[in-house]
């Protein structure tokens, strides 16, 4: 395909010139359909029409173009069009439902877009105008159609592209804005391409939402850079029936796919209740598991259940990444399968590989910032040319900022150069003077159940009481699974960690707050619990 390019836009244009009919994307919008394809040249022409129709930009770099698109094809087209004009793209969650409202308000407040490109109904667009009264609201499909009818369209575009204002998932606090240059994005796309072997002969199959870094970079930007076709499944298709993911992996002879840990649990839980199928996963070279702690029991079940359909354990790639580093920091994919570091009486930790792509990783004592000894836990800080610029809360992304070391909030260590992540520093619980990670307790919740599928989500947190903290656990009821066995959990918790849980509360399915990528939001869950129980004796807010 093409040689390395310094922007995704330049790489796309090179592929348009060399291989105009090569498939860029296949969009699957509904269950049971194969979707429609878009070649690289069709993508370019569609985006070009929208780019011609965009308003004049006196200072394109500092012009924020927000994408408020429900449809993936519209989203991708609008993104490329904005970059053709050199603008800064601001992805938003393309819906107006209550579950996305909080995140979208944060993005609008922090991004202060000049232009919003959307594919909403007229009524929904009016709602959007009320949220962002200063922005120019434009329907992507309407302006693109109008631009195609014009006879005089001789404007040329720079291939350097534009910036990306990406937002973190907000799993522990409000989403943070991260400003990424075209060079930042290209460097990470190259890192992903080289690490996982993306090339024009392979095929990506993904279902993650495009307004999240794992969905946007992993399933759109990296494949565009590498020239690899990408099948984009609407997230609702997966949520309604996880087995359709397997259908498309088989149908398109996928070579790479990705998802957070929880989705693999959903998949194998459904497989446990499904007759043997006719799926063929032998083409898969990489199955990325990232976005949240990788659980050894989940990976074991994936290898067991999907191995029956040809999946090799060498394809499993526990990976570490975050929006602050565009997406990827490291990958623990190994020919002999995933490697885990087993800690006595606590959760095993997945080997996430060595950092690359211009990102440097330091493990430090969080209060002083001093480095810790090799093999010792500390907070993970990242820096280097592969990282973006985190915008301080309340400040404008349009102001100049220097790159600084980024405090990830992750708690981990480095052994023999490889990264191991135990959880979030903010999720440490102090029980009688002892530090316990919420992730360790949550892993025990899953492991304690005699049957899989008893929980679709788990949150462990401490509550101040009588001068110390007591442990509470929220368990989200599983879909069509067995009842949660509380006695088994208490027994496992005592045997593994020798601690006591004050109470377990089982909540209905879908009631735990989650990020846009599906991760449970612990702080929001804890706050919601306290809101309900704040009048109970002994609970301090």
Largest beta-sheet details: 4 strands, mixed
β-sheet strand percentage: 15-25%
Overall SS class? alpha/beta
Distance between the termini: 58 Å
CA radius of gyration is 23 Å
Helix content: 25-40%
The spatial strand order of the largest sheet comes to 2-1-10-9
Please report the number of helical segments. Answer: 15
Mean pLDDT rating: 89
Silhouette: globular
The beta-strand count equals 26
Segments where pLDDT lies below 50 for 5+ residues? 537-541
Summarize this, please?
Helices cover 32% and strands 24% of the residues. The chain is α/β, with parallel strands linked by helices and 541 residues long.
Explain how this protein is built.
It is built from 15 helices and 26 strands. The chain is an alpha/beta fold and 541 residues long. Strands 2-1-10-9 form a four-stranded mixed beta sheet, with helices on both faces. Strands 4-3-5-6 form a four-stranded parallel beta sheet, with helices on both faces. Strands 11-12-13-14 form a four-stranded mixed beta sheet. Strand 12, helix 12 (296-307) and strand 13 form a beta-alpha-beta unit. Helix 2 (40-53) packs across helix 3, helix 7 crosses helix 8 (213-226) and helix 11 (261-271) crosses helix 12 (296-307). The model is unreliable at 537-541 (pLDDT under 50).
């Amino acid at each position: 395909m093409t040689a390395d390019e310094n922007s995704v836009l330049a790489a796309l244009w090179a592929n348009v010139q060399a291989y105009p009919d090569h498939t860029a994307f296949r969009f699957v919008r509904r269950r049971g359909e194969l979707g429609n394809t878009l070649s690289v040249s069709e993508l370019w022409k569609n985006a070009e029409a929208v780019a011609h129709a965009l308003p004049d930009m006196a200072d394109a770099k500092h012009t924020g173009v927000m994408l408020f698109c429900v449809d993936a094809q519209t989203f991708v087209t609008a993104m490329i069009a904005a970059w053709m004009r050199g603008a800064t793209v601001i992805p938003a969650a393309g819906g107006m439902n209550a579950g996305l409202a909080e995140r979208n308000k944060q993005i609008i407040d922090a991004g202060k877009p000049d232009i919003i490109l959307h594919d909403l109904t007229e009524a929904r667009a009016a709602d959007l105008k009320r949220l962002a009264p200063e922005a120019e609201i434009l329907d992507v499909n309407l302006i693109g159609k109008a631009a195609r009818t014009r006879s005089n369209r001789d404007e040329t575009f720079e291939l350097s592209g534009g910036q990306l204002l990406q937002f973190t998932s907000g799993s522990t606090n409000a989403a943070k804005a991260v400003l990424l240059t075209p060079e930042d994005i290209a460097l990470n796309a190259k890192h992903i391409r080289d690490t996982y072997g993306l090339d024009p002969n392979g095929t990506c199959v993904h279902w993650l939402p495009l307004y999240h870094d794992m969905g946007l970079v992993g399933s759109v930007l990296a494949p565009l850079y590498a020239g690899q076709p990408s099948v984009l499944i609407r997230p609702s298709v997966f949520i309604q029936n996880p087995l359709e993911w397997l259908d498309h992996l088989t149908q398109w002879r996928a070579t790479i796919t990705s998802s957070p840990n929880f989705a693999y649990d959903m998949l194998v839980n459904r497989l446990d209740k499904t007759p043997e199928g006719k799926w063929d996963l032998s083409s898969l070279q990489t199955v990325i598991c990232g976005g949240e702690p990788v659980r050894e029991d989940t990976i074991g079940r994936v290898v067991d259940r999907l191995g029956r359909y040809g999946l090799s354990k060498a394809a499993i790639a526990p990976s570490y990444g975050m929006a602050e580093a565009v997406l990827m920091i490291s990958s623990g994919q190994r020919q002999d399968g995933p490697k885990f570091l087993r800690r006595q009486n606590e959760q095993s930790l997945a080997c996430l590989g060595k950092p690359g792509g211009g990102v440097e990783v330091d493990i430090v004592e969080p209060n002083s910032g001093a480095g810790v000894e090799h093999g010792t836990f500390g907070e993970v800080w990242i820096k280097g040319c592969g990282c973006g610029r985190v915008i301080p809360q309340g400040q404008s992304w349009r102001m100049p900022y220097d790159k600084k070391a980024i405090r990830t909030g992750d708690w981990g260590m480095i052994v023999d150069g490889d990264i191991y992540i135990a959880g979030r520093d903010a999720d440490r619980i102090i029980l009688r003077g002892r530090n316990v990670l919420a992730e360790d307790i949550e892993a025990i919740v899953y492991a304690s159940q005699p049957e899989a599928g008893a929980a679709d989500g788990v949150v462990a947190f401490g509550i101040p009481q009588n001068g110390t903290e007591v442990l509470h656990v929220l368990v989200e009821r599983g879909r069509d699974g067995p009842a949660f066995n509380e006695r088994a959990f208490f027994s496992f918790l005592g045997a593994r960690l020798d601690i006591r849980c004050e109470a377990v509360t089982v909540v209905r399915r879908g009631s735990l707050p989650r990020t846009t990528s599906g991760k449970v939001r612990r702080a929001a869950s804890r706050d919601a619990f306290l809101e309900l129980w704040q009048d109970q004796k002994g609970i301090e807010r």
